Amino acid sequence: MLEIAGYIEESLTDGPGIRSVVFFQGCSRNCKDCHNKSINEKGKGKKITINECFNMIKKISNNKKITISGGEPLEQYNNLLKLTKKLYENKYDICIYTGNNLKEIPKELLYYINYIKVGYFDNKKTNVELNYYGSKNQKFYKIEKGEKICLKEI
Ligand code: SF4
Hints:
single chain, 154 residues, alpha/beta, TIM Barrel, eight-stranded mixed sheet, globular, binds iron/sulfur cluster, Radical_activat_CS, iron-sulfur
């Protein structure tokens, strides 16, 4: 089962375009300036199956652009990968927000997604001019897939 904290149907700040966002429950990193502290405790979210989550996304997303955020989605990696594969097979444009660094992201996951935001939020490095994230230590990549997977910072 997946544990989620909730969703929003339309966002302009969680990746390119108008995107629906699903928030995974739980993050054990415990960053001091976390903007989502209320959803970081595991066991306090809603438990749903991969199919239930997929059907929920189908209902809330009109344009098939979906961002998976948290919490820390990679702390539910097996279920994240299953959900992502299902979304990929159904031709969704997929973005993942993680507090992990790029080196910590499994290569397999990158194959199925279109964008990734990496790095935790650091209040001392806040920059309001950044498009899809809040602090300068974070990075946002578009994933281009040819013979090799190629990440382009945007
Ligand atoms: S990694 Fe992100 S969600 Fe997790 S505690 Fe840090 S800022 Fe919050």
